Amino acid sequence: MNARMLRIGMIGIGGMGHAHLETIRTFHHAGRCRFVAIADPTAVRFPDALAALDWESVAHYDDYRNLIARNDIDAVIISTPIHLHARQTIDSLTAGKHVYLEKPPCATTGEYEQLDAARRASGKICAIGFQMQAAPVYRFIKEIVASGKIGDLTHIWAAASWPRDDSYYARTSWSGRMTVGGAPVFDGPATNACAHAVHAAMVIAGAPVRVRGSLKRARPIESYDTAFVEAESETGINVRLFLTHASTKEYGPRMYFRGTCGHAWFDWNMNAAVTQDGGETVQYAFPYQPMMAIMTDFFDAIEQSGEPATSLCDTLPYLQTVNGALKSGDGITSFAASLVSAVTPNTPQQTYVVAGLDDEVAAFATDPSAVPSLVYPGKWVGVGEIDPAPVQLR
Ligand SMILES: NC(=O)c1ccc[n+]([C@@H]2O[C@H](COP(=O)([O-])OP(=O)(O)OC[C@H]3O[C@@H](n4cnc5c(N)ncnc54)[C@H](O)[C@@H]3O)[C@@H](O)[C@H]2O)c1
Questions:
Q1: For residue 84, which atom of ligand 1 is closest to its CA?
Q2: pLDDT value of residue 289
Q3: pTM for the model
Q4: For residue 387, what pLDDT is reported?
Q5: How many Å apart are CA 86 and CA 104, to the nearest integer?
């Protein structure tokens, strides 16, 4: 056995945890790490996974505090509901573990400050599961932007239409919630399913100076299913994102980067294109192995005492942007009932859709210079005005 082999524990093995389980088992069998333990109070729901882990002598705990109390674990992977992230991560860092925490790290900038204080005090790595950061397509776009090939970057736009039905909202008890047990969740397209796009935009744009947005619901939920978010960054870049689950047609996510002499785009199928003004468009396709890539990056960062591709610190602009959007619109509002209808009602495929939303997404994807009227944003909010605990206050 490699003397420096990392010893890994996993907290939360359902849902996204299944993907991490497979990656860690693969690394374990390849001699890249030793898989020591899991903690999940409802792991019995996954008998096949447990049977395989028993065979590999992986310990199982209901309570994550028993896992992090072990001194033969170097790092933990936390893939639990959003409202548990901050507590479990702070406890794990304080117990001396490196942490890979699923995205989003937390729901509020106030929780971010607590997480970052624990990270600094521990001296450990806290990577966040925004796996796009390790994807070759995203790294390529970052290089194109940095190279000046499309001039100085002026705009970043993203559009995503991901219809989500009852079965999606029924899959977890925290889906569509703003809080659970008093802890913020802030679930929705900009803060969960398509949070990768907001984060990817803000990593390139830099910290926002001011933000405006509109968070709306078609579905009768506590949180929102449609977001328009606009930010102006300290580097002068204008960011616009239009993300919805209340549509009928799938689109994207696709991100556009406009510079002073060209533009580029990439999408979640790992395709990209670059056009210099007056020149040909060159298309590119990249391999898709994001979970292997991001976990390899996490392991490398620990072993080489380096920075992970997805550090906690890089998530503050994302959190400021989504918390600012919530403040801008004075919370979340419902679409007019006359615009909302249920498609395939009374089935698990029931989807709440907003009349005209598909057309507005299509129009925005073609020409993002016009603000979509169905999600017209509220007032601009300066970054200093962003409430560190917006979710708890409402
Ligand atoms: N990176 C991605 O592309 C991606 C994709 C999907 C989900 N996610 C993120 O992964 C996280 C989990 O989402 P999900 O959809 O898998 O949620 P989920 O609710 O389906 O699964 C969470 C798992 O955590 C377990 N759990 C609950 N309480 C626990 C506790 N106290 N201790 C240990 N385990 C506990 C549950 O039993 C379950 O197995 C979220 O942050 C979500 O945003 C990321």
A1: 31
A2: 82
A3: 0.96
A4: 81
A5: 10
Q: In terms of Cα–Cα distance, which of 257, 245, 267, 242 is closest to 364?
A: 242
DSSP symbol at 385: G
Decide: 222 and 178 in contact? Cβ < 8 Å. yes
Return the pLDDT at 8: 98
Residues of the chain scoring pLDDT < 50? 1-2, 393-394
Domain at 6-131: CATH architecture: 3-Layer(aba) Sandwich (3.40)
Q: Which ligand 1 atom sits closest to the C-alpha of 131? A: 1
Yes or no: domain 135-393 corresponds to CATH 3.40.640.10: no
User: Which residues make Cβ contacts (< 8 Å) with residue 10, sequence separation at least 6?
Assistant: 17, 20, 21, 24, 35, 37, 38, 39, 40, 76, 77, 79
- pLDDT the model gives residue 321: 98
Quick one: pLDDT at residue 302? Answer: 97
Q: How far is it, in rounded angstroms, from Cα 22 to Cα 241?
A: 32
Rounded CA-CA distance 134/73 in Å is 25
Identify the three-state secondary structure at position 236.
coil
Q: Which residues in the chain belong to E strands, given as ranges?
A: 6-11, 33-39, 59-61, 75-78, 98-101, 126-128, 153-161, 179-180, 183-184, 208-217, 226-233, 238-244, 251-259, 262-267, 271-276, 281-285, 332-334, 340-343, 351-354, 381-382
Rounded to the nearest angstrom, the distance between the alpha carbon of 290 and the centre of ligand 1 is: 18
At residue 389, the 3 state secondary structure works out as: coil
126-128 and 98-101: which strand pairing? parallel
Match 């736009």 to its residue by tokens.
157
Tokens of 156: 């970043």
- 227: enclosing H helix or E strand: strand 226-233
Task: Quote the pLDDT of residue 3.
Answer: 54
CA of 85 to the centre of ligand 1 (A): 9
**What CA–CA distance (Å, rounded) separates 138 from 318?**
17
Domain coordinates of the chain in residue numbers? 6-131, 135-393
The residue type found at 9 is G
- Distance between CA 361 and CA 279 in Å, rounded? 27
How many Å is the Cα radius of gyration of the chain? Answer: 21
> Could you tell me if the CB of 189 is within 6 A of ligand 1?
no
